[in-house]
Amino acid sequence: MDSARLALVAAFFLGMGIFGLAAPTRLVAPFRIELDGAEARTEVRAVYGGFGIAIGALLLVAIMRTDLRRGAVVAVAFALLGMAFGRLVARLFERPSAFYPTWFYFWVELAGAGLLLASA
Asked: Which CB contacts under 8 angstroms, 24+ apart, belong to 74-80?
């Protein structure tokens, strides 16, 4: 498995996680989500921040631990595919007005999943 591919996807998740912890309101601003209370900011910090860091860390562990690599990589790839699938399902109900951010992240998720599956 190509460690550089795993490191690239790990960097994406770690970056998202750090940004989510540090600036939750700015992270979701492109989606026009307003975080008007402590509970809302806490949720973004948990889901985008904590989860992003955990997934990035898991991929870094997978680089070092070959016995865990395949399972970790496939699990994260399927999580990314699930996110992209959710955007497709949302398309049945919503009509995003522009390519960014919805479809931009759809392609980022597909690319990340592809990199990981190519490494599995």
From this structure: 74/116, 74/117, 74/120, 76/9, 76/116, 77/112, 77/113, 77/116, 77/117, 77/120, 78/113, 79/55, 80/109, 80/110, 80/112, 80/113, 80/116
Q: In terms of residue numbers, what domain contains 94?
A: 3-119
- pTM > 0.85: yes or no: yes
Q: What is the dihedral of CA 81, 70, 119, 105, to 10 degrees?
A: 20
Number of domains in the chain: 1
Tokens matching residue 11: 């960097």
Three-class SS state of 23? coil
**Omega cis (within 30) before 101:** yes
pLDDT digits (tens, 9 = 90+) for 37-84: 999 999 999 999 999 999 999 999 999 999 999 999 999 999 999 999
Classify residue 34 as left (phi > 0), alpha (psi -120 to 50) or beta: beta
